[in-house]
């Protein structure tokens, strides 16, 4: 890529030899060998191919000698002129009065630097009032003189003695300079005024471009080049500021970049074919003038006149990138086409402006005096191509790193779309890294740039990307780059040689290509071999190949191929990409109240075309719409799922268990083929496809022999379904109840999710009333259900089961269910007895009737059933014990039972039954609970006193008196305590301004006080303990 346009003439026919140039604003200052300065105006467009100049003024004979160097001092708006070993300041635009710098003699060179400092008086340089500071550093014979201005005010002049004379100077930063001594270099600190020698060994930076490895035939035509420097004058030392804290110095054929510490700032060096005569810098390019006969003609494609020569016989202007240090363009002199009649010309290179901005100006002068007198000097302008065009050319050449480095040097004001271009080039660079097999670096860039995951996934084969996969030749256009040109030249290889199939991720399987030799070097010729060397290397290769061929074949069978290894590495990086994106996408969705629980409600990924997915924006996730975020989540999770399936099958389960947005239609068949049924069921569950999951579980259950292993997977799945899927639960639970009702009931007794209880009871009652009864028992015992409706229904189920068992003649079942019924209605209080009583058969279940009558408060009827129907005095007596409560309506229940024994009045009573003996036993056991008088009244006349002796003794010993006395004493004591408490609560103390503390004899005032019993003395709170001790001593 050629970043600069062809040189154009700015000024021609300048009869006086130009020794120095300076561009300041729209003025071009030309210093001549006769000591004059010519002032020209320039056009406004600095990037135009040609500029019109107009002579404004000529300052004749400002010096007796040539004007060697020009500079502009911004603070004082003056022109610094170096001539006759003296630096003179000429105010602009009048050039008078001139100011000679007497201390800077004899001057050899100077450098200018203007910065803005912010000093707040505390040593901080980041805040405070800005101050414009200009340094003019003049290199003299074995010393350096520093002039400075602060906001136009001159400062004290400083001097420092040096071991050598600086012939060239360049600022590294505002405090450090680099001196070129010839041939040595040093760093100079403005703060300490000390110089430090730069010790950079040429051997340590020697380049591979030496000619030691060249074949003998390669020396033809090198006559002029091989004699360069023999007896030649040492070139002027090169010190060229590249950027802040970096300067370029020349060591023979090598250009070394130094940092402020005096050490090379980069490992790479510039490899010139010969020491450059002059150098200049136009951001970000390094210009150097190479001597005649040093640059091979093959390196300069534009040279037609020298096409048949081995080396170009004229000077060559070489342009290198300061970023990559590779040659970008070579311009042989003369620049005209057809060339000038004057073949040999002297070229001087000068920077356009102190800011190192384009264009660059240089001067050519014929070396022949007659030609120089006739033609004069010519000033050329080398204008730079637009920045956007340079970036586009680099992108088209797939030089993405160079394009990025170039963009870093461009100001946003110059290239408004710089940020967008950087993102595009970085994305394309990531694709190129992916092509080269640098999957980790590529994925890191994709993550940093927030690349649409559909494009990232598209780089993978169909086994991972599915329908999103694209061929490799479409990768760059997919990411916004230009479409590649079809290669027709055989030197680039056939398409089959460089293309890779989309079944395996492409990666570089060969040694990375060696960087191209820079224009103007003979590096390519050093790779030549003689015929003998070629034959010997081929013979050795054949022998080695024959000896290890059989071993290699055996090993290749056991080793994975390079493509397989690349595929695995690429998929692992895709897994890392997806796992990085997942939490960010999840967080962005949650801010919009969208979770994976709603995945089944969203449109499927298959509903969108690949083009629609590729068109999703490459922006931060927080800037995406909800629909776009959902698409991102679906793409990422589906790609992650397929990646796990390819290289990490063990991780599938964890992904399926967590919420995900995976497109099931794309992985369903793959999971079935690999028999990953558990993972498929988890996916179905997460996407609410419960019908498919339960159908698959039933299908798998047919392969199990054990009934629990057969049914429990379906039971566990149904347990997790909630009320929203109640119909599906009932539908798929039916076959489980047919297999095993006990296991089937576990569906509805789980802690996972609870279905509506009434619906479950109705469903279970249709299957079996005993199963329904067990479900209600679970609700009452485990869930502590106290609603009468459930208790009533359980009692009814017990009753129905008992009646059905009797009808079927199943006595064991009847006995078991009747026992449950009796125990239930006797122990619980949460059912409605009257409702159940109405459901009992009239001629059966008398014990149940008796319990229900007791619940209704009809104890006499209940006791009659025990005595007359059941003829069980023990249960009758137990009933009385259970309901008896002293001093309550049931305190006479034993007397009621005695009356039923001795005075039967009910029609249920049988005249043949003798109930006297149970009555006497009741009297003897429960005499304290029977009223003595009423009991004696009920006894028949024939009952002797001996039969009721124990009853009579207890009745006569009743402690009625003792009980009344104790009750009276207790009442009197309680009344006394109440009066005492009332008296204590009614006591008060009054604290006035004149009341004195009896302990410290000070006023109480508003202090915290303490009141002492029993006389109510009041003291300060802190005096309470001392006063209490005094009271105890008095007592």
Question: What report would you give on this structure?
Answer:
By secondary structure, the protein is an alpha+beta fold. Helices cover 39% and strands 17% of the residues. The protein has 35 helices and 31 strands. Strand 12 and strand 13 form a beta hairpin. It is elongated and about 175 Å long. The chain starts with 7 loop residues before the first strand and ends with a helix. Residues 203-233, 302-307 and 487-548 have low confidence and may be disordered.
Question: Which helices and strands, and how do they pair?
Answer:
Layout: E1 8-14, E2 18-24, E3 27-32, E4 37-41, E5 54-59, E6 67-73, E7 78-83, E8 86-91, E9 99-100, E10 107-119, E11 129-140, E12 143-150, E13 153-154, E14 158-161, E15 168-171, E16 176-180, E17 185-189, E18 194-197, H1 223-226, E19 239-243, E20 246-251, E21 254-258, E22 270-271, E23 278-282, E24 285-290, E25 316-321, E26 327-332, E27 345-350, E28 360-366, H2 369-375, E29 377-382, H3 387-396, H4 400-409, H5 418-435, H6 439-448, H7 453-457, H8 462-465, H9 475-478, H10 495-498, H11 531-558, H12 562-591, H13 610-614, H14 626-647, H15 652-657, H16 664-673, H17 677-686, H18 690-701, H19 707-720, H20 726-739, H21 741-745, H22 757-767, H23 769-781, H24 788-808, H25 811-827, H26 833-837, H27 846-855, H28 859-869, H29 873-883, H30 893-902, H31 916-925, H32 932-938, H33 949-956, H34 960-985, E30 1009-1012, E31 1017-1020, H35 1024-1034
Helix pairs in contact: 3-4, 4-5, 5-6, 6-12, 12-14, 14-16, 16-17, 17-18, 18-19, 19-20, 22-23, 23-24, 24-25, 25-27, 27-28, 28-29, 28-30, 30-31
């Amino acid at each position: 890529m050629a970043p600069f346009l062809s040189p154009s003439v700015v000024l021609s026919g300048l009869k006086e030899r130009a020794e120095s140039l300076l561009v300041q604003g729209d003025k071009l200052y030309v210093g001549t060998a006769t000591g004059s300065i010519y002032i020209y105006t320039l056009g406004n467009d600095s990037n135009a191919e040609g500029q019109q100049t107009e002579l404004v003024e000529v300052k004749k004979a400002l010096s007796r000698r040539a004007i060697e160097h020009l500079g502009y001092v911004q603070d004082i708006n003056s022109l610094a002129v170096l001539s006759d070993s003296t630096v003179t300041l000429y105010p602009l635009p009048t050039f008078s009065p001139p100011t000679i710098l007497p201390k800077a003699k004899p001057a050899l060179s100077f450098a200018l630097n203007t910065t803005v400092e912010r000093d707040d008086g505390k040593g901080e340089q980041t805040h405070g009032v800005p101050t414009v500071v200009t340094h003019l550093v003049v290199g003299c014979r074995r010393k350096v003189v520093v002039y400075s201005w602060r906001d136009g005010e001159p400062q004290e002049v400083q001097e420092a003695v040096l071991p050598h004379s600086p012939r060239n100077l360049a600022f590294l930063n505002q405090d450090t300079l680099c001196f070129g001594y010839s041939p040595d270099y040093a760093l100079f600190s403005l703060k300490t005024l000390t110089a430090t020698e730069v010790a950079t060994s040429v051997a340590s930076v020697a380049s591979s471009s030496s000619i030691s490895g060249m074949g003998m035939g390669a020396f033809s035509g090198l006559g002029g080049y091989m004699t360069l420097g023999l007896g030649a004058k040492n070139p002027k030392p090169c010190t060229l500021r590249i950027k802040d804290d970096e300067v370029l110095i020349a060591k023979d054929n090598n250009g070394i970049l130094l940092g402020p510490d005096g050490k090379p700032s980069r490992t790479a060096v510039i490899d010139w074919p010969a020491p450059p005569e002059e150098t200049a810098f136009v951001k970000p390019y390094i210009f150097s003038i190479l001597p005649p006969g040093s640059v091979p003609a093959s390196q300069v494609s534009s040279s037609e006149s020298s096409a048949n020569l081995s080396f170009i016989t004229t000077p060559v202007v070489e342009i290198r990138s300061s970023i990559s240090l590779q040659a970008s363009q070579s311009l042989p002199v003369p620049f005209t086409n057809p060339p000038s009649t004057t073949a040999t010309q002297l070229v001087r290179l000068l920077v356009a402006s102190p800011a190192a901005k384009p264009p660059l100006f240089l001067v050519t002068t014929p070396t022949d005096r007659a030609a120089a007198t006739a033609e004069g000097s010519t000033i050329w302008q080398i204008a730079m191509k637009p920045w956007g065009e340079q970036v586009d050319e680099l992108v088209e050449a797939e030089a993405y790193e160079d394009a990025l480095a170039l963009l870093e040097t461009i100001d946003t004001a110059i290239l408004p779309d710089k940020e967008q271009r950087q993102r595009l080039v970085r994305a394309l660079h990531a694709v190129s890294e992916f092509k080269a097999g640098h999957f980790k670096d590529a994925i890191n860039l994709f993550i940093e740039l927030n690349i649409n995951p559909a494009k990232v996934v598209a780089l993978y084969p169909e086994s991972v990307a599915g329908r999103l996969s694209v061929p490799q030749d479409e990768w760059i256009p997919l990411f916004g780059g230009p479409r590649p040109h079809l290669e027709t030249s055989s030197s680039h290889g056939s398409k089959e040689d460089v293309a890779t199939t989309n079944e395996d991720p492409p990666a570089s399987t060969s040694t990375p290509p060696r960087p191209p030799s820079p224009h103007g070097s003979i590096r390519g010729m050093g790779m030549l071999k003689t015929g003998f060397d070629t034959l010997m290397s081929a013979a050795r290769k054949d022998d080695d190949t024959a000896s290890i061929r059989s071993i290699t074949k055996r090993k290749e069978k056991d080793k994975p191929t390079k493509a397989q290894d690349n595929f695995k590495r690429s998929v692992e990086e895709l897994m890392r990409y997806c796992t990085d994106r997942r939490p960010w996408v999840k967080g962005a969705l949650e801010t919009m109240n969208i979770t994976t629980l709603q995945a089944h409600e969203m449109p499927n990924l298959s509903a969108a075309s690949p083009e629609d997915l590729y068109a999703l924006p490459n922006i931060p996730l927080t800037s995406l719409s909800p629909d776009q975020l959902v698409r991102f989540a679906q793409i990422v999770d589906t790609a992650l799922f397929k990646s796990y399936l390819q290289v990490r099958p063990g991780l599938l389960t964890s992904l399926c268990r967590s919420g995900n947005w995976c497109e099931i239609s794309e992985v369903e068949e793959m999971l079935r083929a690999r028999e990953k049924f558990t993972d498929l069921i988890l996916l179905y569950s997460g996407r609410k496809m419960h019908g498919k999951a339960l159908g698959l579980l039933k299908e798998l259950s047919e392969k199990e022999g054990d009934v629990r292993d057969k049914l429990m997977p379906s039971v566990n799945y149904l347990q997790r379904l909630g009320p929203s899927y109640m119909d599906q639960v009932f539908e798929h639970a039916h076959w489980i109840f047919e297999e095993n009702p006990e296991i089937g009931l576990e569906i509805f007794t789980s802690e996972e999710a609870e279905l509506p209880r009434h619906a479950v009871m109705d469903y279970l009652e249709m299957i079996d009333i005993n199963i329904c009864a067990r479900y209600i028992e679970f609700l009452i015992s485990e869930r502590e259900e106290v609603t009468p409706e459930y208790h009533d229904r359980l009692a009814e189920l017990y009753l129905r089961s008992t009646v059905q068992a009797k009808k079927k003649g199943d006595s064991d079942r009847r006995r078991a269910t009747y026992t449950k019924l009796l125990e239930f209605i006797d122990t619980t209080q949460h059912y409605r007895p009257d409702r159940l009583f109405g459901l009992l058969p009239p001629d059966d279940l008398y014990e149940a009737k008796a319990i229900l009558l007791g619940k209704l408060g009809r104890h006499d009827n209940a006791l009659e059933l025990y005595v007359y129907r059941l003829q069980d005095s023990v249960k009758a007596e137990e009933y009385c014990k259970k309901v008896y409560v002293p001093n309550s309506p049931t305190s006479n229940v034993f007397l009621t039972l005695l009356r039923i024994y001795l005075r039967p009045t009910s029609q249920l009573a049988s005249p043949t039954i003798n109930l006297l003996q149970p009555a006497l036993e009741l009297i003897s056991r429960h005499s304290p609970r029977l009223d003595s008088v009423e009991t004696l009244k009920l006894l028949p006349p024939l009952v002797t006193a001996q039969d009721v002796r124990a009853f009579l003794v207890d009745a006569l010993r009743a402690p009625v008196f003792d009980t009344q006395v104790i009750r009276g004493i207790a009442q009197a004591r309680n009344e006394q305590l109440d009066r005492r408490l009332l008296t204590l609560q009614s006591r008060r103390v009054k604290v006035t301004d004149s009341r004195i503390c009896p302990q410290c004899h000070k006023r109480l005032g508003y202090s915290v006080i303490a009141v002492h019993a029993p006389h109510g003395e009041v003291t300060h709170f802190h005096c309470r303990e001392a006063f209490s001790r005094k009271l105890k001593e008095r007592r």
